[in-house]
Amino acid sequence: MTPSPSPILAPRVTGLQARRCLRHTTREAAARCPGCAEFFCRECVVEHDGKLLCAPCLARQATRARERRERWRGARRTARAAAGVAALWLVFYGIGALLLKIPPELHDGTVWKKLSEASSR
Ligand SMILES: [Zn+2]
Ligand SMILES: [Zn+2]
After folding, report:
1. Mean pLDDT of all residues in 40-55
2. How far is the CA of 57 from the centre of ligand 2 (A)?
3. Cβ proximity of 59 and 72 under 8 Å
4. Fewer Cβ in 10 A, N or C end of the chain?
């Protein structure tokens, strides 16, 4: 049994000063990366969106943002195509409805006669 407590289990060693950079064991940690919860020195973290991230987490976040952007662009393209199809369908539907509204008398030429009779009356 060892009476001296290990530094990891010691209760009050959670401050940054007690931590060392993950990559530079001789340097004190300046920030904790919110992405991987590891401690890094000032040189190992990059500020991004008001947060201090380590390089791998920053790269990961950048890829994720790009993927999201690309997915969004694809969705927008699909929506635009769907809107185009819908517009085309509406146009054809309108034409169809218009054609259905044309009375059959128009085709045998009696519609004009009927109309003139109605106006003369
Ligand atoms: Zn990280
Ligand atoms: Zn470092």
Report:
1. 92
2. 14
3. no
4. N
Ligand having the closest approach to the CA of 29: 2
Q: Whose CA is closest to 24, among 6, 42, 10? A: 42
Residue 87 covered by a domain:
yes
Q: What is the pTM of this model?
A: 0.49
Backbone CA torsion sign across 101, 105, 107, 109: negative
Cα–chain-centroid distance for residue 6? 45
CA of 26 to the centre of ligand 2 (A): 9
Cα-to-centroid distance, 100 and ligand 1 (Å):
66
Is 102 within a domain?
yes
Q: Of the given ranges (11-15, 20-24, 59-63, 81-85), which has the lowest mean pLDDT?
A: 11-15
Q: Cα 100 from chain centroid?
A: 44
The answer as to whether 29 is a domain residue is yes
